[in-house]
């Protein structure tokens, strides 16, 4: 499902709160649009130089480069994130924030996106996704992905939920 308006401040703040400003390394944002979440990340204390913004829409990319000086803006497909990010030769990412309309893609593609993100993130780092649907875009029962849902943010149009996905650590037997 796409958005009828950019995310509001309340939702953007809830998303940004999931990123530890004391963490090290880049913060990747997928589908930043005009930068509602990006602005909240900067307000949270994330230096724009740490931001890697991957956006499909060229006009939005120009806008983002202008608004978030020092950030790395990539006009590209978020579903090719690993290839794109690896070419930057950066440290492992501290978090991935996604504003992508995940439900517009088949479930296998959504799961692949999250698993791909884990390959470029530091151990235990969060993949943070918001969604207007009540259910998680990623199934709750996968053996390798830990899913945590936050309460519905009512002060957004439409109300949205924030989901946090983390790679489960391997169990020692
Ligand atoms: C629902 S809007 C969210 C915008 C912003 N993050 C917000 O919360 O207001 C989705 C954004 O993802 C971008 N987008 C959609 N598919 C994409 C893809 N495959 N790669 C990169 N960006 C994509 C769209 O251009 C749009 O800016």
Q: If you had to describe this structure to a student in words, what would you say it looks like?
A:
By secondary structure, the protein is of the alpha/beta class. It has one domain: 3-Layer(aba) Sandwich (Rossmann fold), CATH 3.40.50. The protein has five helices and seven strands. The protein has a seven-stranded mixed beta sheet, with helices on both faces. The protein is globular, with a radius of gyration of 15 Å. The mean pLDDT is 95. It binds S-adenosylmethionine. S-adenosylmethionine (SAM) binds next to helix 2 and strand 2.
List keywords for this structure.
173 residues, Rossmann fold, 7 strands, binds S-adenosylmethionine
CATH architecture: 3-Layer(aba) Sandwich
Total domain units: 1
What characteristic shape results from the CA principal axes?
globular
Helical segment count: 5
- Regions with little confidence, pLDDT below 50 for 5+ residues: none
SSE order in H/E notation? Answer: HEHEHEHEHEEE
> Can you tell me the CATH class?
Alpha Beta
The separation of the N and C termini measures: 41 Å
Question: What is the CATH fold-level name?
Answer: Rossmann fold
**Unique bound compounds:** S-adenosylmethionine
- Based on CA atoms alone, the radius of gyration comes out at 15 Å
| Order of strands, widest sheet | 3-2-1-4-5-7-6
Q: Name the CATH homologous superfamily.
A: Vaccinia Virus protein VP39
Average pLDDT confidence is 95
Range of helix content = 25-40%
Please report which band the strand proportion falls in: under 5%, 5-15%, 15-25%, 25-35%, 35-45% or over 45%: 15-25%
Overall SS class: alpha/beta
Major sheet size, sense and barrel closure: 7 strands, mixed
* Strand element count: 7
